[in-house]
Amino acid sequence: MKRSITIIAARVFLTLLILTGSALAEVSVIVDGRGNYISTLLLFKENKGQPSYWEPVRSGVPSYLMLNMEGDILGDAKPVFTEHPLNRYPWVVWSHFNGRDFDIVYSRWNGEYWIAPAIVHAGEGDDLEASIAFEPSGILFLAFTKKTETSRIFITAFLNGRWLNPVLVSDPSNNSSNPALIFEQDLFTVAFRTPDGITIIDLSDIVSDSCMGIEEGPNPFPENNPNSGTGGSTTGGIAGRDR
Questions:
Q1: pTM greater than 0.85
Q2: Residue 148, Cβ neighbours under 10 Å: how many?
Q3: What is the DSSP-derived secondary structure letter of residue 236?
């Protein structure tokens, strides 16, 4: 009964924010009185033309429930999230500015706190426009745009605690952008924009044949821990590998 009331209260809170059009921003989880995960809040705002995605909104909420609270100061981009199909815990992916360009980073709620954000793949150019989706067994796939001389679409997957090497799926000579992963029954595709329109590619063979190697990157926020006030956690210095 208490859990049901908490869920209703969370939905009312989110509905009021939408109806009032409040200029708010936050990435956090809502838990019940026993600490059980209920839902994820992604609240965005725009102030004088500048987007804000990370600044906390709810007062009196423990910092360990908040993710990347200093993300706006760091110049981090808009996050995307999805829930694991088996335990419903959220996974969040976004583009983090490293001082030179943008890297794709990720975090996940482990049932107690957000793990420390870690780099998915470090390389030249801006990695932007992330799209994520779980396949039914719980493997997370990620598509993103890498902007160098041309904009290209790459995909990777999180398997056995690590991200696989990104695989190029678009024509390298043709600018591509805005990827979207789609799982529908036995079909796994990625759609993206090109100057010629929308391109849709079947990823089944590419994923099985080409995602072979393992990428392991450094932790962009090594100071993060459950009590740091920035959200996330250090887990023995682990970055590219998740446990």
A1: no
A2: 12
A3: T
